[in-house]
Description:
Elements: E1 4-8, H1 12-24, E2 28-29, H2 39-46, E3 50-54, H3 65-73, E4 78-83, H4 88-97, E5 101-104, H5 109-120, E6 125-126, H6 128-139, H7 148-154, H8 158-168, H9 173-180, H10 184-198, H11 203-213, H12 215-222
Parallel strand pairs: 1-2, 1-3, 3-4, 4-5, 5-6
Helix pairs in contact: 2-3, 4-6, 7-12, 8-10, 8-11, 9-10
Amino acid sequence: MGVRLMVVDDHRLLAEALASALKLRGHRVLAAAAPAAGAAELVIARAPEVCLLGTATPAEPGIFDPVVKIKRERPQVAVLVLGPVPSPRGIAAAFAAGASGYVRHDERIEGVERAIMKARAGEAAVAPQLLQGAFSELLNPVAQPDDEGQRLLQMLTPREVEVLVRVADGEDTRLIAAGMGIAPSTARTHVQRVLMKLGVGSRLEAAALAARTGLLDRAGPLNNSAGPEA
Length: 230
């Protein structure tokens, strides 16, 4: 039985070619192309079983924000990221955002179809060689001269780190205030400071940035030494 799916990519020719190939194999393609800025809204409105979401820059900050939004609004939709050969960090960021898998742009149609079927079945869909690269980096990490997570963490006070952790856990202003024993207005001020320091415009973006950079992993042991209290 064919899969009800969408192909969303900035490159219309690529999207339409892939959509046509998938239609020939018996799948029901709802849409072939859309600007990245409107990708999430289109997928949320159509609610396919699987979405192939194209990206040209898997390492760019915020690139997987549409995945986060889709999974928040339509958790039943399996999202497959379609892109170039990624870094292990790119794969990790895609999965952290909620993607079900990663498919290379140059993958054969048979490979794309296998990934689609795995994603619909609730399985992780990523080529073994890409996983091997990710595991290799995890087991043998290379020292990074510019550790973005550490840099961002040093910008926050201990209280702001706690606020960020709570934001990432999905707490609203009322819950943050209650959990920290502060007034809602104070909690709201802390949230705004965190957003400003991280250079993001929403709580969702802050949570995604923290996950991508590993900031949350460091927040626990460093929560009492992240910087002077504000």
